[in-house]
């Protein structure tokens, strides 16, 4: 936003009010998007390559937390798809779940070391994808469950 979509899609706003944590892997583009999501619920986010100094001052490059026994990290860019699993195993050895962005391509794999890699795509900028997307999941008792990629219709 504001180039690909003028507002947050209603589906995103609705989902944001129904979850315990909103995770954003960067490319907010404007601080107003961060502010709007933060008004809807708690946010764990990082800055992306399309974010200026104002967002970089408010957000880390890598965010980490533990939820229900799952060690979570969020980063914007993981590099090329080829070799991603091995690189992320090396870069995030003490992590169970890594959420990343940058490509706007939904991604769900598990590395040889057991690290779950998730990219929700984008609810506002589908890039080379047929649809805009977002992702939901549950974390409980040290496990990642119910990962679902949702198609998002821009308002």
TrEMBL record:
InterPro entries, alphabetized: Calcineurin-like_PHP_lpxH, Metallo-depent_PP-like, Phosphodiesterase_MJ0936/Vps29
EC number assigned by the record: 3.1.4.-
Pfam families: Metallophos_2 (PF12850)
Keywords: Metal-binding
Domain of life: Bacteria
Gene3D superfamilies xrefs: 3.60.21.10
Co-factor(s): a divalent metal cation
UniProt key word Protein biosynthesis: no
Domain Calcineurin-like phosphoesterase positions: 7-140
Broad enzyme group: hydrolase
Keyword flag Ribosomal protein: no
Family assignment from sequence similarity: Belongs to the metallophosphoesterase superfamily. YfcE family.
Listed NCBIfam families: yfcE
Name of the protein in its database record: Phosphoesterase
Taxonomic source organism: Microbacterium trichothecenolyticum
């Amino acid at each position: 936003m504001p180039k690909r979509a003028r507002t947050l899609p209603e589906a995103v706003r609705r989902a944001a009010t129904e979850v315990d944590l909103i995770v954003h892997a960067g490319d907010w583009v404007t601080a107003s998007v961060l502010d709007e999501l933060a008004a809807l619920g708690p946010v764990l986010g990082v800055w992306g390559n399309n974010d200026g100094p104002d967002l970089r001052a408010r957000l880390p490059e890598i965010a980490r937390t533990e939820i229900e026994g799952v060690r979570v990290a969020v980063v914007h860019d993981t590099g090329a798809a080829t070799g991603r699993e091995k690189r992320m195993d090396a870069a995030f050895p003490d992590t169970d779940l890594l959420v990343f962005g940058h490509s706007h391509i939904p991604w769900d794999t598990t590395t040889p070391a057991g690290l779950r890699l998730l990219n929700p795509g984008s609810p506002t900028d589908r890039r080379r994808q047929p649809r805009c997307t977002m992702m939901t999941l549950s974390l409980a008792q040290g496990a990642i469950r119910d990962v679902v990629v949702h198609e998002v219709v821009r308002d």
